[in-house]
Design brief:
CATH superfamily: NAD(P)-binding Rossmann-like Domain
Structural class: alpha/beta
Protein name: CoA-binding protein
Pfam families: CoA_binding_2
Radius of gyration: 14 Å
Number of helices: 5
Shape: globular
Distance between the termini: 27 Å
Number of domains: 1
Helix content: 25-40%
InterPro entries: CoA-bd, NAD(P)-bd_dom_sf
Strand order of the largest sheet: 2-1-5-6-7
Order of helices and strands: HEHEEEEHEHEH
Number of strands: 7
Largest sheet: 5 strands, parallel
């Protein structure tokens, strides 16, 4: 799928209403997209909740071993994992009553998208949250 062909009119709602972001697959390596995209969002005022079983603290925030281990409510689940992991992550996002399920560039899954849409969760796939946020800000 061409990332620019996917219509999404929810960016205004996502970027204004979804302030708490669970980042699944956040890396401690500053060269990795999961790190610099997350850091960018953090600098924009979003609250990050890292999900990485190998680290206790990432970007100054407590990291959880898995999405289901996060005790508080989530607004947005931002995924930096392989496409085949998306259905399970989408199920947890739905159970946690997340309002947005975002699959980064190169990640998409029909079943995950369909499950989220049926549950009323906004879905974005194969797009970069940092790039879309910058475009959104420029258009405001």
């Amino acid at each position: 799928m061409n990332p620019h062909a996917q219509p999404n009119t929810n960016f205004d709602r996502i970027f204004t209403q979804c302030r708490r972001i669970a980042v699944v697959g956040l890396s401690p390596n500053p060269a990795r997209p999961s790190h610099y995209v997350s850091r960018y969002l953090q600098l924009q005022g979003y609250q990050l909740i890292p999900v990485n079983p190998g680290h206790r603290l990432l970007l100054g925030e407590v990291s959880y071993p898995e999405l289901s281990a996060i005790p508080e409510a989530l607004d947005w689940v931002l995924c930096f994992r392989r496409s085949e992991e998306m259905p399970a992550l989408a199920s947890v996002a739905i159970a946690k009553q997340a309002r947005c399920f975002w699959m980064q560039v190169g990640i998409q899954h029909d079943t995950a998208r369909s499950s989220c849409e049926q549950a009323g969760v906004w879905v974005v796939e194969n797009r970069c949250a940092m790039v879309e946020h910058q475009r959104w800000q420029a258009g405001r």
